[in-house]
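Batch job 17 of 40 flagged for manual review because the log was empty.
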Amino acid sequence: MIALSRRSFLKGSTMVAAASAASASGLFGISRAFAQDMQGQNDDVQTILNLASTAELFATTHYLNAINGDLGFSGDVINYLKAGFLAEQDHFELLTSLGAVPVVTEFYVPETLFSDPALFATISEVAETAFVAAYLAATRIFAEAGETAFAVTAAQIAGVESEHRAFVRQIGGLLPNNQGYEQYNFMNVSDAVPVLQPFLDGSGEGFVGPAVPPTADQIAAIRAEAEMIGYMSGTPYAAM
């Protein structure tokens, strides 16, 4: 059984530091092969934390740039994006409190992502679908390890990512709630890496960057609006 104490989350810090020092392209080149080679094995806890925190950091960067971009969204949509940003930031802060270290801290996006609403909706749906599937994979791994609280927390996050997916589909003019069950595409969190690769290393055609994550001041400014927009800061999670 995987022991999910705070101490176990912090184990392997030497390995994490070495990974953080590696080049993004080299690290994710390895990860692509690693995900394929992991059939029949579960990601270890540190891998889950590191990859999930990378996805959350990308999500905060993505939504902040949309808020500040030239997409022409109404005030209601901007408030949704702010709430989405705060949720992703809450997830990121939870993961890093448990010892997560993002494997990259800068991201790449299609050049017109934050000025073309249709492209924004399409790319956001791809990302959120991958996030849901990755957290469902984490739910499976934690459940198999007998770590119920962490399995439920991963499922709680998957549920919120699903809400984000529904709204960006609505932005794109599509039926938001088009599925009876969320897609369970990955056995491991690491299986999501190939899907998100272009955002992590700029390998996609027409991708530009890097886009840097939000600053402390930018986070604080949107947090100050949480009550006004109706976002429930401090919502409890099962592993609290």
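Reviewer: the log was empty due to a logging misconfiguration, but the result itself is present. Residues 46-229 form one domain. Unflagging and moving on to job 18.
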